[in-house]
Write a structure and sequence with these properties.
Elements (H helix, E strand, L loop, with lengths): L1 H7 L2 H24 L7 E4 L2 E7 H17 L4 E4 L13 E9 L1 H5 L6 E8 L2 E11 L3 E8 L3 E4 L2 E3 L14 E3 L4 H4 E3 L9 E3 L4 H10 L4 E8 H13 L3 E5 L5 E3 L11 H9 L1 E7 L1 H9 L1 E3 L5
Parallel strand pairs: 3-4, 10-12, 10-13
Antiparallel strand pairs: 1-2, 4-5, 5-6, 6-7, 7-8, 8-9, 11-17, 13-16, 14-15, 14-16
Length: about 300
């Protein structure tokens, strides 16, 4: 699919999309980090006490949408904190926003969270940016666009295709807390799953994969706004992203909607999309997914 898209979409255009996403993610991330120790207002979504949103989430989303509209007023925008029954503009290009991915971590002043902004063309990620806090550098800013590669803090990024043996030698992997709920694990290959880490922010975990800290990840179940930016960043870094298809089999991720139509039904399907993905170096991902067989409830 990517070669056809590269022919159809100008690389300078996808780079412009990524640059706007990058600027919006940077300003939103810095604002969130500046306020992590503040006395912020916290709300529950849909009456669920463990599904939190803060005034920072809402402020960030409003700012990101404003920035997108300044440059691309006709594009579709889908945000995690959208009000119910919102009717966005309809376009073949859609921005998918998570203003704070890892809100529960953020509320508890645990600095593992992210800002994720992805751009889709007919449901397929073509550009995106992720901001995360990071130790000595204060923060990391990842950017990618179709055909232009990926960068971390303006340095070209490439995922190394490491040997699966590293998984039995202390290599870490970001995995669901109860992986056997979703997969049948090959008993003879359990030692090759990796040292499990569960972090509470899908986009943060995808940053770790792109940076080469996590050997690979089984990510989710999560929504389109959790994945959109990370998918293009991992793929443009030379990595692989797989998802689970309707036959309950692993396959290369194709997009958030088949047979894309410019209508409200398509946008709602992208908004309501949930799934599991595998991401990392091609060799590692292809090896591990052969040993993790999706159960019927995984998709």
């Amino acid at each position: 699919m990517e070669p056809q898209l590269i022919q159809k979409i100008d690389k300078n255009f996808t780079n412009k999309l990524a640059s706007i996403a990058e600027k919006a993610a940077l300003k939103s991330g810095e604002f969130a980090l500046e306020n992590i120790d503040s006395d912020i207002k916290i709300f529950s979504k849909e009456g669920k006490k463990n599904n939190l949103v803060t005034e920072i989430d809402r402020r960030n989303q409003k700012f990101i949408i404003s920035m997108i509209k300044d440059h691309f007023p006709d594009h579709t925008i889908i945000g995690e904190e959208d009000k119910k029954n919102i009717k966005p503009k309809l376009h073949e290009i859609a921005w998918v926003i998570d203003p704070i991915d890892g809100t529960t971590n953020f509320v508890n002043k645990f600095p593992i969270f992210s800002v994720s902004i992805g751009v889709l063309f007919q449901g397929i990620p073509i550009a995106g940016a992720i901001w995360t806090p990071w130790m000595n550098e204060k923060s990391l800013l990842l950017k990618a666009s179709l055909g232009n590669g990926a960068s971390i803090n303006n340095k070209k990024n490439k995922i190394q295709d490491i040997n699966p043996s590293k998984l039995s030698e202390g290599g870490i992997a970001t995995l669901p807390s109860k992986i056997e709920t979703y997969f049948k694990v090959n008993k003879n290959k359990k030692e090759f799953i990796g040292e499990k880490r569960v972090l509470g922010s899908c986009a943060f975990e995808m940053m770790l994969i792109a940076k080469g800290i996590s050997t690979y990840g089984i990510l989710g179940p999560a929504s389109s706004w959790d994945f959109a930016a990370g998918v293009i960043i991992i793929k443009e870094s030379g990595g692989e992203v797989l998802s689970i298809n309707s036959k309950n089999e692993w396959e290369k991720f194709k997009g958030f909607h088949d047979n894309y139509q410019i209508n409200n039904e398509t946008i709602e399907n992208i908004r309501n999309w949930k799934g599991i993905m595998a991401g990392g170096s091609k060799k590692i991902v292809n090896y591990t997914t052969k040993n993790l067989i999706p159960k019927k409830s995984s998709k």
